Amino acid sequence: MKFGAVLPTCEIGTDPITLRDWAQAAESLGYSHIVSYDHVLGASHSGREPAFWGPYTERDDFHEPFVLFGYLAGVTSTIEFETGIIILPQRQAALVAKQAAEVDLLSGGRFRLGVGSGWNYVEYESLGADWERRGALLDDQITVIRALWEHDVIDYTSEFHRIDRAGIRPRPARRIPIWFGGYTSAALRRAARWGDGFTFGDSGPDTVALAETLREMLAAQGRDPTDFALEAEANYGIGPDRWTGLVAEARNAGFTHFSVNCQSTTCEWGGNPAANLQSTAEHIEALETFITSVT
């Protein structure tokens, strides 16, 4: 099993040296990958109809994942980078294909593109994206992105895209993995059809059950479920006894990856104890404590 560290984006601050130190610490401790969440815009929750259910607001910092990983690629050498997840339908497919290819090239093939549809409808509206058609658009975007990666020039027409004999350069030197994330049946079906892996933002019996449903969907698509990567996640605030139990459960269920999230905002929103880490040194110490406990 490979272990990942979720960037505490809301808490780590904006100092590039701090970001470098945290990433290098994760690499030196033996983590296989860094996960970065994505929000272009934060929005106030008050007075919304329908009400917001997500944990983040206009007060939370979010580093832009592609730019962040381009920077971290230059200050690390082995650790991989995962968007967990890029909210794909609110971004232009061709631009995402270009950005992902660039990160993969600059990092020497250490990138995987995790995608999903998100929850923040205000963010969609602000970016000029169609909230109601996000699922259908996401499906089409995967086709466009992979075609742009694989061919010098494409001629593509669909309900959502028109690319008239054009392409991106540089193209990636390999087939970049595309992972999906989410909790819905639609997300699982999409992954079974298009994906190379799936990132669950949680762990435990419910997550294991969802993974089993996904395996059934993969088999129905004629795909080998044992070749499909699965990632679970635990909040740091729940403590070592629960970490080790959840990791063992995930490993027994065939999960290939497991990440720790040390960010208090996410912990509290999920009904878990807050990590309450106040400094970069404390965040790095938490990474060491977790990896020592589970390996």
Describe, in short, the structure shown.
The protein has 295 residues and is of the alpha/beta class.
Describe the 3D structure.
The chain is an alpha/beta fold. It has one domain (2-294): Luciferase-like domain (TIM Barrel, Alpha-Beta Barrel). The chain has 10 helices and 11 strands. It has helices at residues 16-28, 65-73, 93-106, 121-126, 134-150, 185-194, 205-220, 240-252, 264-269, 280-294, and strands at residues 2-6, 33-36, 80-83, 86-87, 111-116, 154-157, 162-166, 178-181, 197-199, 229-235, 257-261. An 8-stranded parallel beta barrel has the order 1-2-3-5-8-9-10-11, surrounded by 6 helices. Helix 8 links the parallel strand 10 (229-235) and strand 11 (257-261). Helix 6 packs across helix 7 and helix 8 packs across helix 10 (280-294). The longest helix is centred in the middle third of the chain and has 17 residues, at 134-150. It is globular and about 55 Å long. The model has no long low-confidence stretch (mean pLDDT 96).
